[in-house]
Specification:
about 280 residues; TIM Barrel; eight-stranded parallel beta barrel; 13 helices; about 20% strand
Amino acid sequence: MNLRVFLRIMVGEKLARTAFFCWYSMLLIFPSIEIQNNQCARQIRQAAGSPIAYPTDPVKMAVIWRGENARTLHVVDMDGVREGHILNAECICAMVQAVDIPIQVSGGLRTYEEIRDVLALGVYRVVIGTAATREPGLIERLVKEFGTRKIAIGIDSKNGKMWIEGGKVEADITPLEFAMVMKKVGVSRIVFSERNPQTNEHLLPIETLRELAMKTNARLTLWGGVNNYRDLVELQGCEKFGVDSVIIGKPLYENRFPCQALWRLNEQSLSDFGPTRRI
């Protein structure tokens, strides 16, 4: 029995169609795990009537997302964002060792030594924001030493300007201007987010993404802004311009995607959350 037929039997035609898309979208989906004090800042919301209590241990959460067919993960050291240097390195190392997929890390990475040490943990890629605006030469050095696949630049946009220091300080440069500077020093991957200036919520900035991708010729990852499968379908239209991935946090933890109904159903019969125990 193929997967489409199985899904139709389990959840019906409409849900099967959207569930299939969630699993097999051409966009690479990064589930986001935010770490505070060596624990997850978010837990998966339980299905109605389910006795399952989801863990706050980031390592166990990484295993859960791997079991639900995640092909990569995005990990944010929230303590590092606040303090300006990485604080959960031991936990991140344990996550890298627990799953067989690439892990991307952001949060407080400001110096060459710290970035080097985080990459030495086995992390696939780091995302650098504040340090890149202050020291473009540092980014050039990192790209030359570790390669373009290991170094991505984070751009947090609001009101047409970049924001740094965890989104607290406005930088006097536009996202496009900064992206062009980064292109000149060899950057090929940009992780972009745009926020509503009133609510600070992430937006789905289709036109901005298209412009950035086309003018920089970089590969783009959207951070936030995708709240449901319809947003995912809309973003998919930007894949041809170079937007090839998206980081999703809260909507995944709140089970907003149709495929998650299957995951929650399956987990009710599991005694553990091991990565090989999924439908």
